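testing teh design pipeline on a random one, pls ignore if ur not involved
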């Protein structure tokens, strides 16, 4: 289980800060004790194979609840607070949860809805449900979730002294599986906080993160940030499109020593392709498919990917389970070089 890996970190360095959530900190020992306590409480009201829709105004509680569900064999369905009645109705209708906890009152009075998702504790069974940006529910298997955490692009470069910046719950999927849980597994300190471009500079100045992620829309606002961003070890850019070279160069000008281009759109939103870019990298617009994915180029040069985490049944998935990236690449040995579209060429 994911939780067992985090408990191992508590045994090694229990007094180390595991999570910073706004102005509160939690050590590894406090995190484990808190999850154990929550698990004991939930076990009196939830049964293995049931599902729970959950939201909280404190990002820390998403991690606690997911880990408790991991222990109990419960399907975890995280969403956001302050949903409109219409959107909440759509989510409940789509996921049919047994339990809904969106407030303290809900937590104090768990009521089953008798519409359980099937869960047989097999690696292929439903383990968690998350939502894409369009609020479309996407179900995950235990295999896919565990694969996403242990084989994420970022986890291989994480070290215990790193400070990981995880954008939650605004980007719950990336926050949980690409940064928060891998960071805890690696024994890092994880800063979990919902932030936007306005808060980003203050958070970076306060916590001095070394690994984290931004979105392309945030890069423009970073032009006004202080030039010294050398506290980063690597800064990831998550996008379903190739990042313009000018944006990458801007980050280098600000002092970021390395940029990891995280590219893809899979079941857990874990990037299928990545390339670590340094200031002297000759070809910045290139990607490398990891060994965890199969790939192919069609006759138009468009890249297709298949792997454990790729969603089955999506409109962009072919009969063989390959997801269409929609981007044209040229293969050179084990690297793929991006071919800009005509409008992009004219912009340059």
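output:
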């Amino acid at each position: 289980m994911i939780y067992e890996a985090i408990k191992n970190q508590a045994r090694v360095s229990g007094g180390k800060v595991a999570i910073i959530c706004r102005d509160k900190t939690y050590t590894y020992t406090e995190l484990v004790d808190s999850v154990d306590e929550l698990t004991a409480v939930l076990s009196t009201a939830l049964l293995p194979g049931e599902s729970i829709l959950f939201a909280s105004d404190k990002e820390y509680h998403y991690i606690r609840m997911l880990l408790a569900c991991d222990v109990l064999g419960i399907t975890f369905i995280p969403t956001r607070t302050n949903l409109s009645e219409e959107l909440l109705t759509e989510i409940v209708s789509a996921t049919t949860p047994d339990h809904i906890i969106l407030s303290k009152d809900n937590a104090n009075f768990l009521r089953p809805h008798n519409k359980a998702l099937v869960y047989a504790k097999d690696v292929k069974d439903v383990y968690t449900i998350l939502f894409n940006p369009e609020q479309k529910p996407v179900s995950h298997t235990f295999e896919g979730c565990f694969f996403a955490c242990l084989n994420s692009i970022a986890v291989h470069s994480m070290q215990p002294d790193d400070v990981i910046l995880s954008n939650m719950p605004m980007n719950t999927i990336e926050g949980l599986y690409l940064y928060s849980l891998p960071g805890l597994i690696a024994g890092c300190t994880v800063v979990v906080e919902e932030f936007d471009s306005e808060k980003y500079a203050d958070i970076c100045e306060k916590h001095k993160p070394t690994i984290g992620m931004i979105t392309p829309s945030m890069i423009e606002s970073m032009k006004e940030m202080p030039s010294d961003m050398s506290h980063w070890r690597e800064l990831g850019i998550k996008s379903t499109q190739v990042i313009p070279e000018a944006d990458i160069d801007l980050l280098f000008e600000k002092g970021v020593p390395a940029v990891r281009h995280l590219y893809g759109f899979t079941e857990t939103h874990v990037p299928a392709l990545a390339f670590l870019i340094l200031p002297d990298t000759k070809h910045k617009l290139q990607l490398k498919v990891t060994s965890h994915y199969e790939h192919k180029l069609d006759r138009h040069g468009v890249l297709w990917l298949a792997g454990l985490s790729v969603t089955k049944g999506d409109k962009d998935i072919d009969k063989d389970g390959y997801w269409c990236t929609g981007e044209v690449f040229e293969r050179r040995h084990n690297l793929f070089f991006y071919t800009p579209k005509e409008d992009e060429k004219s912009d340059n």
